[in-house]
Amino acid sequence: MSTTVTMWLGIVFVLLAIAAVLLQAWLWSYPFDHATHKSTAPRAWRMVHRLIGVAFIVIYVVMMVQMVPRLWSYQVELPVRTVIHALLAVTIGVLVIVKISILRFFKHFESGAMPTLGLGIMLCTILMAFLSLPYSLRAHAYTGAVFEQKNLERTRGLLATLDFGKSIDVAAVTTVAALAKGQAVLTNKCVTCHDLRTVLIKPRDANGWLDVVDRMVDKPTLGLRITDEDVPYVTAYLVAITPDLQESTRRRRAGEKQQQAMAAQVAAATAAPVVAEVAFDAESVRPLYEKTCSQCHKLTQVEKHGPDDAAGWRTVVVAMVEENEAEFDGETATKVVQYLVATHGKK
User: Fold this and answer.
1) Hey, is 33 helix, strand or coil?
2) Which pick of 38, 149, 162, 224 has the fewest CB atoms within 10 Å?
3) Furthest-apart CA pair in the chain: how many Å?
């Protein structure tokens, strides 16, 4: 099952849980005959409440059928978030079984236990959805700018530098339709062994994405496998969305330990190679700059930064290495800083 279907089922699942509790709260406001174990609430609305419950259970069973086999395809040690998600899912199942048992066999507990059970099921459902839905929504939110011509050209240029182990038509795998196919591979096959957070939380450069996808091809799985044919498509899509991933990562990190990060940047900048204040051929360095810096963000970010001196550009480049995990060596970093000083230096 694709993450698109799972995402919508999850949203409906949460809405059903909330609707059931709200409707239950209203129905339980009517007098309850403890002798006959019957409520005086309108029969039609009681039937609606029951249908909501049945729909909730059906979705729960469908999602559990999808989730349980995937647990055996995960890493040796499950991430904490995945463990919590699974425990909440199991807890929902236990609470539902207890609720059905009371309705069928232990009606003398009904008036006291049912509201508490309904509230517990709703809370577990909301918590479980909170752990997974945001990442599913993010995976389906990368449209628009990702498919713009400039981003397609950036992606095409980066893929042309990769070694796929075979000849591929780079232009053919960087069209809008091809990126949509790559997105489908991500949301249908990659989730067999990973939740989407694993993919979306740590952006990589083009080589890094290709290495990850190649490892996934060889990994055994119980679900849909990533084939050799899928590799260029899903790699292209991941490269295409990387600037958006980096921007999201940057915003997330902006409020974390600002003072410590600033101190680390200053220390690293001090240790960075000294940039020689001599003229050099900026145009010859331009391809290196574009290839290196477009891995993780759009080049328009440089324009937004504005003119800066050598020390300022050193700090920016160091930040790219420390915060965004850009893979610079000393020579590349020096040339990039020189280029930035020459083309965007303070006058």
Assistant:
1) strand
2) 149
3) 95
Query: 315 and 268 in contact (C-beta within 8 Å)?
Result: no
198 or 174, greater pLDDT: 174
Mean pLDDT value across the chain: 75
Distance CA 318, CA 324 (A): 10
Task: Tell me whether residue 93 is exposed, middle or buried, using C-beta atoms within 10 angstroms of its C-beta: 0 to 12, 13 to 18, 19 or more.
Answer: middle
Report CA 334 to chain centroid distance, whole Å: 33
**Nearest Cα to 100, choosing from 123, 85, 121, 126?**
121
How far apart CA 282 and CA 259 sit, in angstroms, is: 34
What tokens appear for 26 in the block? 């209203």
Distance in angstroms between the alpha carbons of the first and the last residue of the chain:
57
What is d(CA 84, CA 208) in angstroms, rounded to the nearest whole number?
29
pLDDT digits (tens, 9 = 90+) for 23-34: 888 887 777 666
What mean pLDDT do residues 97-103 have? 84
Burial environment of residue 336 by CB neighbours within 10 A (0 to 12, 13 to 18, 19 or more): buried
How many Cβ atoms sit within 10 Å of the Cβ of residue 170? 18
The confidence score (pLDDT) of residue 51 equals: 93
The model's confidence at residue 269, banded by pLDDT at 50, 70 and 90, is very low
Residues in contact with 182: Cβ distance below 8 Å, sequence separation at least 6, in sequence order: 173, 230, 233, 234, 235, 236, 237, 238, 240
* DSSP secondary structure letter of residue 345: B
Q: What is the pLDDT of residue 346?
A: 77
Give the separation between CA 280 and CA 283, rounded to whole angstroms.
Answer: 9
Instruction: Determine the length of the chain.
Output: 347
DSSP string, 232-287: HHHHHHHHHHHHHHHHHHHHHHHTSSHHHHHHHHHHHHHHSPPPP-S---HHHHHH
pLDDT digits (tens, 9 = 90+) for 146-158: 777 888 888 888 8
Cβ(117)–Cβ(98) below 8 Å: yes
